[in-house]
Automatic annotation (TrEMBL):
Pfam families: BON (PF04972). Residues 2-70, 77-145, 149-216 form the BON domain. This is BON domain-containing protein. It comes from the Bacteria. The keyword Isomerase does not apply.
Amino acid sequence: MSDIQLRQDILDELDFDPRVDASHVGVAVKDGVVTLTGYVNSYAERIAAGNAAQRVKGVHGIAQDIEVRYPDEKKTADDQIAKRALDIIAWDTTIPDEHIQVMVQNGWVTLKGYADWAFQRNNAEAAVRRLSGVLGVTNLIEVRPPKVSAPDVKRRIEEALKRNVQMESSNIIVGVSGNKVTLNGKIHAWHERTIAEQAAWAAAGVSQVEDNLRIA
């Protein structure tokens, strides 16, 4: 696929996604690597724009340079953002809120603390980035999983990949050392990278995932 066609496909996907106002988003493509520029009205919209580009076949990489520009009437003080972030984390029963700390500086939220599972860390970030006034999120929550054997972790991840109808798992090599999982091999599209990472993080005992997958 040519870069010109890929750029048009991404523009069409951005325009199709109701979560994104693509009127102020620019797209440039070179050798399958996409650069997104311009601005949007919320951090959640910025994430949605990046996700839309990832869904397009032929995308090998993304440089996310979209700015978040809140209208004056929607700008929020840091202390208000912090309170809302703590509240929304506490309301989510999947997040161990007693172990999570929130800091906000100039609209940028930093999450610290620890969780037993990666999905809990991800849920905390997902909840906070939808709040009005947030310009970005740094997620420093540690995953402190229970100890399990490396062969068992490897087996569970490989079985999960084989079960997934959207994956060609035979091209993925799973390595496990301690609590770290390494993914190597070739995939056909960006969404397969996401699926493989999610499978790795879903295995008990995993606290780190290194993704070396290449899009063929």
